[in-house]
Specification:
about 65% helix, two-stranded antiparallel sheet, mainly alpha, 7 helices, globular
Length: about 150
Amino acid sequence: MREAFYAGTVPPKAGGLLEEAMSAYADTSRAEALLRQARHEAPEALPVYFSLYKFYFYKGRLADAEEAARSALETAARQGGFPDIYETLTPETTDWTRHDTPQHFYLFSLKALAFIRLRQGDVECCERILDKLRELDSADTVGGSVIGSLAAGL
């Protein structure tokens, strides 16, 4: 295993695919194929999901970014041993304060989902997600307040 990008480790083959996808970013089809291959190679590696939703977001493919973020939430919840439905989560569900854990990645991906929903024009859904994020991450360790400020400006 090796460190890659954000959210932990990935197997060497998947890490190489992520690096290659980053280098091929301008070639959208090739980069996407490499990211999908990385997901196939390492379906439990959280950095792969991070790379996917960031890629799709920056390419303006918001529906794909949302699907990748929701898959990231499901995977992180499974790894963290808590439900994947954010509306049901509470501060007592798990230890949300530990960094470099599936829980922290879950919070970060929840922030990403809020931003994606905001960019899709769904301010109401974005606000619901941010309300939950404020409840779970009262110290704002993942920067949900930044998305909140953007939403307030609309």
